[in-house]
């Protein structure tokens, strides 16, 4: 099993290899590679993993319709842009993030390790009157994960350019579409086309109906969305899911931090000290404060936030803002109409800079969909994320906003078992989802102790980024004991609980397995929940291949004594479970101590 890249600590470096005669180059990380011709017929000749081989196959891999003329990079019908030159460098950080802040592994790096290749093109001389600028195509590959990202920038030097078609990447390949998993970092106004055509498949990533105007005197450049292409080596759902989770750790490590958050309805400077003391006592790592847009510009509002932020960070707790922007009105596709959202962006950035923090902006669907100008959306996303301010495209519900953007899901109260089961179904689907994004769950404090215990087991016991309401700190002693128990678990095994997760149901039990094959001591954390109305006493077979155990493993139920278990030839081990209705337990799998 040591040859399996999912079971070893990342070591391989990405390389840039010019081929003979210097007319092509190959970008490779030992798992995948992409080879490109550098002559007049610039194109992808191979995007390879094992026997899976992609190419442009006679179609352009980039298409740009500028001022009514179709310019292409690669083969196909259109005006072929001419290769000018290329540069190779380390990847740049997409957004601000401090490496190793919370629960990241020792081999988490930011920016991610790998290589970026920039390739420049220009229009042929006799077509320069239609487009006198430069197009740069970026290819970025990361160490020890089968992922390549690509994006394009367009620069206009002197004349206005109107772009009405924009294809960022296009490939053909022989095989099933399930082996290619593309993700875009911008979901608004974009389209992914992945079709099976007999034994062949076709992939394209483009803007739906771009209406981009480049004006050198105002805005003479445009950067496209990024498309992330993951090449799978198996159609097995579990392996594919674990591959995507590894991609998430490399490309968007901030989404697996999962901080324990206290969310406030309001914060008065005079009472904040007591709230902060209680938060520190249960191990809260961040405090969210709801903020009105007016607070971003008023001297009084900024002064108040500065005091609260300073007091919070002095206690080793981070400080974040939640800003609702539903006040943004409908906007047409012109620069003047986009000013309100750009003004809000600048206000939020200015405040974050003055406080020395990141924050969280919640953009309601209605306000976001009202933005018809791509330039404003692109600027809004990129500049906020660059400062560490996470943006959600939805206030409620599981709505993915793209790679590196935060998913926010609101659960108001778990008052019945039906509420809990809905939450469990949503989280199990999201934990194993192939789209890399953070999960946020609001946890209130219901009166029923059993439901409260199950809710905290499901969230904190799965390393979910949970935001606790103030009532969680002010309820009864019994409620506080339940909270303290699960926050202790959450803080005791942070790297396990934020590792790759799989979920399965078996005879009334829901099993969540967190797997960390490269862990120093602990390799798996297994949460078992009984949501049935009956006592369950039975053994459960647990698949441990991706925990990297050989013949034996040491197992500890909750914080009890360690027992030695045999790992079968099919990499399963059995544990005995005895659970009353509506209860849970957990197991920690460790490396056995040598005799």
Record keyword descriptors for this entry.
single chain, about 600 residues, alpha+beta, twelve-stranded mixed beta sheet, seven-stranded antiparallel beta sheet
Rough outline:
globular
Helix fraction, binned, reads: 10-25%
Radius of gyration: 26 Å
Q: How confident overall, as mean pLDDT? A: 78
Low-confidence stretches: 326-335, 358-378, 390-410
Number of helices: 11
Helices and strands in order:
Elements (H helix, E strand, L loop, with lengths): L14 E4 L5 E5 L4 E5 L6 E6 L2 E4 L4 E7 L2 E6 L4 E2 L1 E8 L24 E9 L11 E9 L4 E9 L5 E14 L5 E5 L5 E8 L2 E8 L4 E3 L6 E3 L3 E5 L5 H15 L9 E3 L5 H13 L4 E6 L7 H16 L3 E7 L14 H17 L3 E4 L2 H5 L4 H13 L2 E4 L24 H15 L8 E4 L5 H11 L5 E5 L1 H4 L2 H16 L1 H4 L2 E7 L2 E7 L6 E9 L5 E8 L8 E6 L4 E5 L5 E8 L3 E8 L5
Parallel strand pairs: 7-8, 20-21, 20-26, 21-22, 22-23, 23-24, 25-26
Antiparallel strand pairs: 1-2, 2-3, 3-4, 4-5, 5-13, 6-7, 6-13, 9-10, 10-11, 11-12, 12-18, 12-19, 13-16, 13-17, 14-19, 15-16, 27-28, 28-29, 29-34, 30-33, 31-32, 31-34
């Amino acid at each position: 099993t040591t040859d399996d890249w999912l079971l070893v600590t990342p070591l391989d470096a990405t390389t840039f290899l010019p081929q003979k005669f210097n007319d092509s180059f190959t970008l490779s990380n030992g798992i995948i590679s992409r080879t490109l011709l550098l002559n007049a017929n610039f194109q992808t000749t191979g995007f390879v993993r094992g026997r899976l081989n992609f190419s442009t196959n006679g179609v352009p891999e980039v298409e740009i319709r500028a001022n009514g003329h179709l310019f292409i990079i690669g083969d196909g019908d259109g005006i072929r842009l001419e290769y000018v030159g290329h540069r190779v460098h380390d990847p740049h950080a997409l957004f601000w993030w401090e490496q190793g802040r919370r629960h990241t592994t020792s081999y988490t790096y930011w920016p991610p390790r790998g290589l970026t290749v920039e390739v420049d093109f220009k229009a042929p001389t006799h077509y320069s009157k239609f487009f006198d600028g430069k197009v740069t195509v970026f290819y970025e590959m990361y160490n020890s994960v089968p992922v390549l990202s690509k994006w394009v920038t367009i620069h206009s030097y002197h004349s206005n350019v109107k772009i009405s078609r924009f294809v960022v990447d296009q490939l053909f390949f022989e095989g099933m579409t399930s082996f290619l998993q593309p993700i875009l970092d911008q979901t608004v106004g974009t389209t992914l086309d992945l079709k099976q055509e007999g034994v062949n498949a076709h992939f394209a990533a483009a803007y739906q109906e771009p209406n981009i105007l480049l004006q050198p005197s105002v805005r003479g450049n445009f950067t496209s969305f990024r498309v992330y292409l993951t090449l799978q080596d198996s159609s097995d759902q579990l392996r594919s899911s674990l591959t995507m989770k590894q991609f998430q750790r490399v490309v968007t490590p901030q989404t697996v931090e999962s901080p324990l958050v206290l969310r406030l309805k309001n914060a008065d400077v005079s009472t904040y000290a007591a709230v902060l003391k209680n938060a520190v006592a249960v191990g809260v790592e961040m405090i969210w404060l709801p903020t009105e847009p007016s607070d971003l510009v008023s001297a009084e509002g900024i002064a108040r936030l500065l005091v609260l932020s300073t007091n919070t960070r002095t206690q080793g707790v981070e400080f974040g803002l939640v800003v609702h922007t539903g006040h943004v009105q409908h906007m047409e596709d012109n620069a003047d109409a986009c000013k309100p959202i750009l003004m809000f962006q600048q206000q939020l950035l200015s405040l974050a800079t003055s406080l020395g923090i990141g924050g969280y902006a919640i953009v309601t669907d209605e306000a976001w969909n009202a933005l018809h100008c791509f330039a404003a959306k692109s600027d809004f996303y990129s500049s906020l994320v660059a400062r560490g301010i996470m943006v959600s495209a939805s206030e409620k519900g599981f709505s993915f906003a793209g790679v590196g953007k935060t998913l926010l899901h609101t659960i108001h109260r778990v008052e019945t078992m039906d509420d809990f089961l809905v939450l469990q179904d949503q989280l199990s689907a999201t934990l194993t989802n192939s789209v890399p994004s953070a999960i946020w769950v609001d946890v209130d404090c219901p009166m029923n102790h059993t439901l409260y215990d199950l809710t905290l087991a499901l969230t904190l016991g799965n390393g979910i980024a949970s935001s606790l309401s103030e009532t969680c700190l002010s309820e009864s002693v019994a409620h506080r004991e339940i909270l303290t128990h699960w926050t202790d678990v959450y803080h005791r095994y942070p790297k396990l609980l934020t590792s790759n997760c799989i979920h399965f149901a078996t005879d009334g039990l829901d099993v969540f397995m967190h797997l960390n094959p490269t862990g120093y001591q602990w390799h798996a954390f297994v949460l078992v929940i009984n949501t049935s109305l009956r006592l369950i006493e039975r053994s459960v077979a647990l698949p441990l291949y991706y925990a990297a155990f050989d013949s034996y493993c040491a197992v500890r139920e909750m914080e009890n004594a360690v027992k030695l278990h045999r790992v079968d030839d099919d990499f399963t081990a059995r544990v005995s479970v005895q659970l009353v209705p509506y209860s849970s337990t957990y197991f920690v799998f460790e490396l056995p101590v040598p005799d």
